[in-house]
């Protein structure tokens, strides 16, 4: 007689709305093996970038890969093309780019934390965090003119300047967010259903994080020092107070704490930018067509995002390769599930903060 | 970005001698359509805590060649290997099953030659 | 325990976070990115906006009844598809006379209806453009 039963999570399952399926083989309550399938949706964006659109429009196309990290996608593509064109953008444009990137990280991390609460059965906290997230969305709308699809970054700079009213509003709202996040810090460390219940669940050891090439908050919660903001020099992250946040337990609680600490760090960086914004133009015209190949990496809220761009001197590019964070982490995800209780699977999955919209590019 | 040319036969040995899992991490496996029914395969690595150190191993191959798998050394490579199978219609050792495409869909959309 | 009870009690008298739409209108920011608007009199028909638009939501198509603008030598007419537009304002930046010929408002597009034949009429225009 067979001792195990197979339970699927997704793709049309009630607890998982996204197009991914994990097939768990369970013995009693324990998961003993996992099979994953992420190939339900494919939108063909890589091909569209090389056949349908000219290189100067692709920044807007790749922003549509994902709504939550739209800014990182267009920023990575733009940085790659700027590398190929060989121009230098102004310091003010660089700072404004980081400002929006970090605001994006704050609201994305807040979304993930609220989902973790929801999966722990803590609906009230979910509503509270989602309500507070509006403060950040409001600033983003003031800054860029839209809540989700920012279309803020342009080859050569940014599209909109910041005025003193918006700057004041940013400082005010970020102060408010900081107070709220301090409150979450308390809940996430002391509340029974958010901290103690999550301790030791879904743990990834440091050695496994290395061997499965884990990235983003998932890896940093295991103590792996990987943050692309530390490894690149196209944007001056170190000037404005970037500090890597790591924990060592590797479980769900550690991931939440890493995200909370990153929110604090991002708020600090945003405040530094708004207070010390250099004068200057926000746009420099870059001439020419991209020729050659470039690899650009950026830290999206979920981890490392890589763009490979190859141009041949014409307006159409030869190849655009997008490596999204969740896609690269799928093997690590399946590894973490093994040995856990089936009942914990939705909470573990929420703590990965998977972005299936990026994965199905 | 440092590019190192390898042949398909030697790529496994090259990567095995180079890859230290505590120093480097595997980014992705990338394909690139070339002229005359050829393609370029790139194994892209980057170094932890170093300033933009990216190493690319690349090999020029025919579409009929079989790419050796590195999934036993680097478990996270399996997913990009399955992706490249679908996108370019090549064969990767051990990853015959693609990721996205159904049997009746357009085969190898990124290969750049006859679809 | 006590604080949570007090909180739960005071929450009963709190106003909701959401807006009572449509009774209370949503306050739109002045700088909100909305529809692109066009001033025919100032247009010089350089077609830069058409080339700059990433999704191709602006088309200049030949018409039999062209406007009386003297710059319009080829007899073109401006067409704009608000449902294709991504409101990136690339066209406004490309325009040599922004604010006069082409500018961005903070208005929203109306919902598209079946009677409006949004797609059909636009596909016709795209076909016309291709045959030119």
Structure report:
Chain A is α+β, with helices and mostly antiparallel strands. Helix content of chain A is 47%, strand content 14%. Chain A is built from 13 helices and eight strands. In chain A, the strands form three sheets. Chain A has a three-stranded antiparallel beta sheet, covered by helices on one side. In chain A, strands 6-7-8 form a three-stranded antiparallel beta sheet. Chain A has a two-stranded antiparallel ribbon with strand order 4-5. In chain A, helix 4 runs antiparallel to helix 12, helix 5 packs antiparallel against helix 6 and helix 6 runs antiparallel to helix 10. The radius of gyration of chain A is 21 Å and the shape is globular. Chain B is of the alpha/beta class and 115 residues long. Chain B has a domain of 66 residues. Helix content of chain B is 17%, strand content 32%. In chain B, strand 5, helix 2 and strand 6 form a beta-alpha-beta unit. The longest helix of chain B has 12 residues. The model of chain B has no long low-confidence stretch (mean pLDDT 80). Chain C has 132 residues and is of the alpha+beta class. Chain C has a single domain, classed as Alpha-Beta Plaits, CATH 3.30.70.3270. Chain C is built from four helices and four strands, in the order H-E-H-E-E-H-E-H. In chain C, the strands form two sheets. A two-stranded antiparallel ribbon of chain C has the order 1-4. Classes of the chains: A alpha+beta (361), B alpha/beta (115), C alpha+beta (132).
Total of domains of chain C: 1
Residue fraction in strands of chain C: 5-15%
Give the helix level of chain B as a range of percent.
10-25%
- Radius of gyration of chain C, whole Å: 22 Å
Uncertain stretches of 5 or more adjacent residues of chain C: none
How far do the termini of chain B sit from each other?
32 Å
Question: How is this fold's topology laid out?
Answer:
The complex is a heterotrimer of chains A (361), B (115) and C (132).
Chain A: E1 5-9, E2 21-27, E3 30-37, H1 45-51, H2 58-62, H3 70-85, H4 91-119, H5 123-144, E4 153-154, E5 157-158, H6 164-190, H7 192-196, H8 206-211, H9 216-220, H10 252-275, E6 291-300, E7 303-312, E8 317-323, H11 325-337, H12 345-352, H13 356-359
Antiparallel strand pairs in A: 1-2, 2-3, 4-5, 6-7, 7-8
Helix pairs in contact in A: 4-5, 4-10, 4-12, 5-6, 6-10
Chain B: E1 2-5, H1 11-18, E2 24-33, E3 38-47, E4 54-62, E5 66-67, H2 77-88, E6 91-92
Parallel strand pairs in B: 1-4, 5-6
Antiparallel strand pairs in B: 2-3, 3-4
Chain C: H1 2-11, E1 36-38, H2 48-52, E2 58-62, E3 76-80, H3 90-94, E4 102-104, H4 118-131
Antiparallel strand pairs in C: 1-4, 2-3
